[in-house]
Design goal:
12 helices, alpha/beta, FAD/NAD(P)-binding domain, seven-stranded mixed sheet, 28% strand, 370 residues, six-stranded mixed sheet
């Protein structure tokens, strides 16, 4: 099916939305993008992209612009909270033939994706307030009181999706009992290593994202902004935790915090309204697959639309193709969260003996094309 004469609305100008706009640019449809943020921003922390994510950036013609501003991560290291090594993974070898693993400031990835959509119109500072089916069309009312009609509406607006609330009976994301803190600190280690220290049900993670910066991540229990969490991190984990926290003493503007949530739905489509990315299948971040799954969604959706005879057929084929993969990721994140919640003595024994094997099996199915 060609997209000539088809009108598509993408709600959300994040990774999922911009990747979808880029993937659809040769299909022939008229694509509109709306984003509730007032404009592009340089805020945010860092992002880690595994090999299956950079493979899709290559498909979209964006791998080189991202590689130019990213750090290639060659090794992942897991230790106990006191720094005792549990296991290392040669991720360059693990993802060989798929794509490199890279890390970069999230804002730099966003800029590359914006460049990838070229002249696709983005209406900043706009969001839908009502979505209703009208025969084979979807009427969307926006917060500026205007109404437009589309052949397909794609909700790519994240874990707390407005489209999901409006068109999917208000189904909400569910909390995972983890409150996460993310910030950026000066880089202190020249080695391009993704490194995590494991406490009981808690992790402190560092990833270099540029020659000067390190992305830091800490997840706590379910209580939001618990007083004293910084002191606890410094006391619980070995260096570089205390050094990374000092960056917040001088400038806490990079600190972002919020609950880790997941989204599980029986179906991602309601008529001609489709959810993709975190709006459809957000998971715990412990596999770093949020952006990867969103990027894959974009390319598979474009392929499904081009191959099908109708929009309805394309949406059915898309979901049938994507569900086994996203369900796998969801299941693996549950297993990984459960493993890190084991008593530390038992967990450390298991990780030392089986960590490499478990890690490889977690990602194995993702080496294949989506």
């Amino acid at each position: 099916m060609r997209g000539d004469g088809v009108r598509v609305l993408i709600v959300g100008a994040g990774v999922a939305g911009l990747a979808t706009a880029a993937a659809l640019r040769t299909w022939g449809a008229t694509v509109d993008v709306v984003e509730r943020a007032p404009g592009p921003t340089d805020s945010g922390t860092g992002i880690y992209l595994t090999g299956n994510a950079t493979r899709i950036l290559d498909v979209l013609g964006l791998r080189e612009p991202v590689a130019d501003v990213a750090v290639e991560i060659t090794r992942q290291r897991s230790t106990s909270q006191r720094g005792r090594r549990l296991f290392d993974i040669d991720v360059a070898a693990l993802w060989q033939g798929v794509g490199p693993c890279v890390s970069l400031p999230r804002a730099h990835l966003h800029r590359a994706l914006l460049a990838g959509v070229r002249d696709a119109p983005i209406r900043w500072g706009r969001r839908p307030v009502a979505v209703a089916e009208e025969g084979n069309l979807v009427a969307v009312e926006f917060d500026d009181a205007s109404t437009q009609r589309y052949d397909l509406v794609i909700g790519a607006d994240g874990v707390n999706s407005t489209v999901r609330r409006l068109a999917f009976d208000g189904q909400a994301a569910r909390d995972l009992g983890q409150y996460a803190y993310r910030w950026v600190a000066p880089r202190v280690d020249a080695e391009p290593v993704w490194s995590v220290q494991l406490g009981r049900g808690r992790q402190f993670l560092t990833i270099p994202i540029s020659a000067e910066q390190t992305y830091c991540y800490y997840n706590d229990g379910p209580v939001a902004d618990r007083p004293g969490w910084r002191d606890e991190v410094a006391a619980t984990f070995t260096e570089p935790a205390a050094t990374m926290l000092k960056a917040l003493d001088h400038d806490d503007s990079t600190l972002h915090s919020g609950p880790n949530q997941e989204v599980v739905l029986d179906s991602w489509a309601r008529g001609r309204v489709l959810l993709i990315g975190d709006a459809a299948h957000a998971t715990s971040p412990n596999m770093a697959q949020g952006a990867a799954m969103a990027l894959e969604d974009a390319v598979v959706l474009a392929s499904s639309l081009a191959a099908a005879g109708s929009v309805a057929e394309a949406l059915r084929g898309y979901e049938a193709r994507r569900r086994p993969r996203t369900d796998w990721v969801l299941g693996q994140t549950h297993r990984r969260d459960k493993a890190t919640g084991l008593p530390p003595v038992l967990r450390d024994v298991v990780m030392r003996r089986l960590g490499q094997q478990m890690f490889r099996s977690n990602y194995g199915p993702l080496f294949a094309q989506p």
